[in-house]
Amino acid sequence: MTAVRANGIEIEYRETGPRDGAVILLIMGLGMQLVAWPDAFCDGLTAGGFRVIRFDNRDTGLSTKMPSIGPIAMAAVMAGAAVGLPVRPPYTLRDMAADAVGLMDALRIDRAHIVGASMGGMIAQIIAADHPDRAKSLTSIMSTSGDRALPGPSPKVLRALLRPLPRENRGRAVRQAVDLLRLIGSPGYPASDAELRAKVERSMRRSYSPHAFGRHLLAIHTAGSRVAMLRRIRAPTLVLHGADDPLIRAAAGRHTAASIPGARLRIISGMGHDLPSALLPDLVAEIAGHCAGAEETAAGKKVRRIGGGP
């Protein structure tokens, strides 16, 4: 285990690649642990010479768990939020962005390429907007601008997402999590039941905190639109989104890209709300190329400043 104290909590992280490589900071999504980033994906980025750091968001994995208010109270809070009642979440997406920046501070990393998936993409957007000096580039994967006018998930997906995970019955929790992953997965690159079960069981063996899922949902729900914030982002930005994402629709990826000056958008056919094995080489190539391009652009600007040229 490797953990540091940052932003007042313990954050578990894992890093691979050369110590002197440009840093890619990976931020995972709703209720997911650092192990949700496929090893092949991380290995592909390190093969490109990058130092890759992934970590457990607060309330997940081996990072600090937040005090639980109990399943009944959390259900009441979620119900209130759904009908528009004022809700104060236990923590916000901005708190989670501060966790990531705090991790960078603890590891003495001045700047990094910030890559986030789903909720992690929302956190990555906040870092790029609120801490522009820390983001060499931004990659937002299957995420959203938070605009309330965007289409939401299908009713079937929403029901599955809001169904609370059982605290005691681990077998039922595994089945329920597998069902959700199958429902939101890539129709063009479907994973087998055995693959999904192995992924869920690996995660639950490492750590199981079912109430954190609801607290993450609450942080997302109360975050509001980030459109004004996105317009402030100046870091080179890549937006990747599945054409067949049933959870965060492709329209959300398009809106995110349209809201960030100069952002490049790629909609991937057959991709849902996951990182399917068959697409990993393509995703690695896109992200590594984006980060390398940002490095070259920054180096060119530095040379021009030193030389005093145009």
Description:
Helix 1 (39-47) runs parallel beside helix 11 (280-307), helix 2 (71-82) runs parallel beside helix 8 and helix 3 crosses helix 4 (119-130). The chain is globular. The model has no long low-confidence stretch (mean pLDDT 91). Strand 7 (237-242), helix 10 (250-259) and strand 8 form a beta-alpha-beta unit. It has eleven helices and eight strands. It has a single domain (3-152, 210-307), classed as Alpha/Beta hydrolase fold, catalytic domain (Rossmann fold, 3-Layer(aba) Sandwich), CATH 3.40.50.1820. Strands 1-2-4-3-5-6-7-8 form an eight-stranded mixed beta sheet, sandwiched between helices. It has helices at 39-47, 71-82, 93-106, 119-130, 155-162, 170-184, 193-206, 210-221, 227-230, 250-259, 280-307, and strands at residues 3-6, 9-16, 23-27, 51-55, 112-117, 135-141, 237-242, 264-268. The chain is α/β, with parallel strands linked by helices and 310 residues long. 45% of the residues lie in helices and 15% in strands.
**Helix proportion range:** 40-55%
Proportion of residues in extended strands: 5-15%
Q: How many helices?
A: 11
**CATH architect. name:** 3-Layer(aba) Sandwich
Order of helices and strands: EEEHEHHEHEHHHHHEHEH
Low-confidence stretches: none
Number of strands: 8
Amino-to-carboxy terminus distance:
49 Å
* Average residue pLDDT: 91
Brief description of this entry?
The protein is of the alpha/beta class and 310 residues long.
